[in-house]
Amino acid sequence: MSLTHARTRARYNAWMNEKIYQAAADLSDDDRKKDRGAFCKSLHGTLNHILWGDLIWLQRFAAAT
């Protein structure tokens, strides 16, 4: 992956994270944790999955430098 492509993906990731966190902020804790039948069950589970994925990628990038 080129540096330009990686930067584009990082900007997109930051943009989409901001959008999903803004949407989640409008929900109650109970609504965020309600089982919606999705892969990660709830929006809370999905946010946790996104966070762990981002952390794993950051560790990979840090190890590569």
Describe this structure in words.
By secondary structure, the protein is mainly α. It has a domain at 35-65. 77% of the residues lie in helices and 0% in strands. It is built from three helices and no strands. The chain has helices spanning 3-25, 29-33, 43-64. The longest helix has 23 residues, at 3-25. 0% of the residues are buried. The mean pLDDT is 93.
For the sheet with most strands, the description reads: none
End-to-end gap? 14 Å
User: What structural class is derived from the secondary structure elements?
Assistant: mainly alpha
- What is the string of helix and strand elements? HHH
Q: Output the number of helix runs.
A: 3
What portion of residues belong to β-strands? under 5%
Q: Could you give a quick summary of the protein structure above?
A:
77% of the residues lie in helices and 0% in strands.
Secondary-structure topology with pairs:
Blueprint lengths: L2 H23 L3 H5 L9 H22 L1
Features:
single chain; 65 residues; mainly alpha; 3 helices; 0% strand
